[in-house]
């Protein structure tokens, strides 16, 4: 009974400490992600969601240091593991943003054609956008529904479209939004303008997909080559576990392993920078 009561007291104390340190940690992570937060705002990620993710990241960071330093007894490897956990949020958020932009780009091609067909069928531009919004999946559906919701609330359609365009800051959506706003302000055939825009978006999508396919093989090869040292370590451990124990169990062996991991990481980053082609 006393052991259970003591455990509950320890848990309560740790919980209260974490709660009190939460706002301080949130300010630290806000500075760490200051340059990425505007990109997250374009994806409608709230500060509350971000703070929750980063608190779990902080727990993982501390747990990694404790695991490698005190439990496994590998302080040099703890430095590298802590570094990987430290940079992981920025890498994962950048990857998520990139995938989100690709999905939006692909959805816009079909949405532009859908809005043009709706206008050609006799619907007004707001009604055509609303119809396409319900026929489209997220994330583009959320942005189109935001436009129709603001329009129904009494906001001019041009302003609603322009607000989403500025927040997303996506070339494909900028072209799509500019065609609609210019047509609304200066007049013209909306369906014809959107047809031309859709052709341009389809060509841009084709070129970007070709570029992604050309660089995908290089990225996969870089990943395979980066995993080779880990595979070799596993193979050598199966062949001679006693000798490999020297590598993991002595300070000199851990330093050698740290150097190898650093070289692998630098090589991986170098390959990604070479393959990071923009046009």
Automatic annotation (TrEMBL):
Domain Type II secretion system protein GspF: 119-236
Localization terms from the record: Cell membrane
Protein's membrane topology: Multi-pass membrane protein
Keywords: Cell membrane, Membrane, Transmembrane, Transmembrane helix
Main location: membrane
Pfam families documented for this protein: T2SSF (PF00482)
UniProt key word 4Fe-4S: no
Regions that span the bilayer: 56-89, 221-239, 245-268
Cellular component aspect of the GO annotation: plasma membrane
PANTHER family: INTEGRAL MEMBRANE PROTEIN-RELATED, PILUS ASSEMBLY PROTEIN
Name of this protein: Bacterial type II secretion system protein F domain protein
Organism annotation: Rosistilla carotiformis
